[in-house]
């Protein structure tokens, strides 16, 4: 592959990198000759992200922001928790619960969502609590404080991107079934890796009510496919051509549905827009592959997990403590 230079601009801040040092120097000289600019040197901080570059890889976290967040909301002296949400946690609209300060609650949610840029381990819990921003109650505030108590003991966690990893793209897709007790909609969870590096993830409630686990998983796989197609196009701009990109799914019925065009009573009601997954499987853009539930990394984005499972998946996602990395 030829050398490339990548430039990202946010208002008047610019970060850039290249596969060749000469390209970086040439770009820097060109920009400074045209504009009044200051070179800050090697990237180590950008938009709240702390970046550590080593000979073995790159570590990204937001420990400084995390500590400031905890102090801002008076949680710096709380008791830490092992996980962001209990497996027995039950959240609904809580119509009879006591109302709380909406502005403060929304501020907490917004801050946590910003932190999730480097902390996928809190993504599901934060998105679940975010559903109740219009009329939050004490039960919702308790759940948010539980997330912060988890952060208190894990401020140094971040994403590790090892050097010299392969450029193969892999997606993981999962869903719970009727997890929302209010409207009985399911939650889709997906994550995407380039080599062993986590580069994309999401946790989102589905737009329609699924009548079976197969349908819920099929819809989630469709969301995963859409993201993969976008990433495939982005990578093609960098000269990387990928086909038959695997999507790991732990539901055999959903996998069969992506291959079999025959409609029957369990699937004929599924909206047409969800069947674009089958279309792209037939085109060879992606392929659904079975993975055992214990190895389903997207599980962490669909529901609260027991401590052991949570720790295992967190590590597999490449979310590590900075103290465990040699800089």
Short description:
With 327 residues, the chain is of the alpha+beta class. Helices cover 34% and strands 20% of the residues. It has 3 domains: 5-41, no CATH class; 63-157, no CATH class; 166-291, Ribonuclease H-like superfamily/Ribonuclease H (Nucleotidyltransferase, domain 5, 2-Layer Sandwich), CATH 3.30.420.
Mind explaining what this structure looks like?
The chain is an alpha+beta fold and 327 residues long. It folds into three domains: 5-41, no CATH class; 63-157, no CATH class; 166-291, Ribonuclease H-like superfamily/Ribonuclease H (Nucleotidyltransferase, domain 5), CATH 3.30.420. Helix 3 (102-115) packs antiparallel against helix 4 (123-130) and helix 6 (213-237) crosses helix 7. 34% of the residues lie in helices and 20% in strands. It is globular and about 60 Å long. The strands form three sheets. A five-stranded antiparallel β-sheet has the order 3-4-5-6-12. It contains nine helices and twelve strands. The longest helix has 25 residues, at 213-237. Strand 3 and strand 4 (49-53) form a beta hairpin.
Q: What keyword list fits this structure?
A:
alpha+beta; Nucleotidyltransferase, domain 5; 5-stranded antiparallel beta sheet; 327 residues; globular
């Amino acid at each position: 592959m030829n050398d490339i230079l990548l430039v990202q601009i946010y208002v008047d801040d610019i970060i850039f990198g290249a596969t060749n040092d000469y390209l970086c120097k040439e770009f820097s000289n060109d920009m400074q000759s045209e504009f009044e600019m200051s070179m800050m040197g090697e990237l180590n901080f950008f938009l709240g992200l702390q970046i550590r570059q080593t000979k073995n890889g790159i570590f990204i976290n937001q420990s400084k922001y995390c500590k400031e967040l905890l102090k801002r909301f008076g949680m710096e002296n709380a008791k830490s928790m092992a996980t962001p949400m209990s497996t027995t946690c039950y959240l609904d609209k809580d119509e009879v619960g006591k109302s709380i300060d909406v502005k403060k609650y929304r501020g907490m949610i917004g801050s946590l969502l910003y932190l999730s840029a480097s902390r996928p381990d809190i993504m599901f819990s934060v998105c679940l609590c975010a559903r109740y921003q219009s009329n939050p109650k004490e039960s919702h505030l308790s759940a948010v404080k539980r997330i912060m108590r988890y952060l208190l003991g894990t401020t140094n966690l971040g994403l590790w991107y090892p050097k010299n990893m392969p450029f193969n793209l892999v997606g993981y897709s999962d869903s719970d079934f009727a997890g929302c007790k209010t409207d009985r909609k399911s939650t889709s969870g997906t994550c995407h890796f380039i080599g062993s590096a986590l580069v994309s993830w999401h946790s989102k409630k589905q737009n329609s009510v699924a009548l079976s686990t197969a349908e819920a998983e099929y819809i989630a796989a469709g969301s995963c496919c859409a993201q993969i197609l976008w990433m495939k196009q982005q990578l093609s701009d960098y000269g990387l051509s990928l086909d038959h990109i695997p999507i790991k799914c732990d539901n055999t019925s959903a996998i069969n549905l992506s291959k079999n065009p025959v409609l029957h009573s369990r699937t004929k009601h599924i909206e047409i827009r969800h069947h674009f997954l089958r279309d792209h499987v037939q085109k060879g853009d992606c392929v659904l592959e079975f993975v055992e539930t214990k190895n389903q990394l997207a599980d962490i984005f669909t529901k609260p997990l027991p401590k052991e499972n949570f720790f295992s998946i967190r590590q597999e996602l490449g979310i590590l403590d900075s103290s465990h990395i040699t800089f």
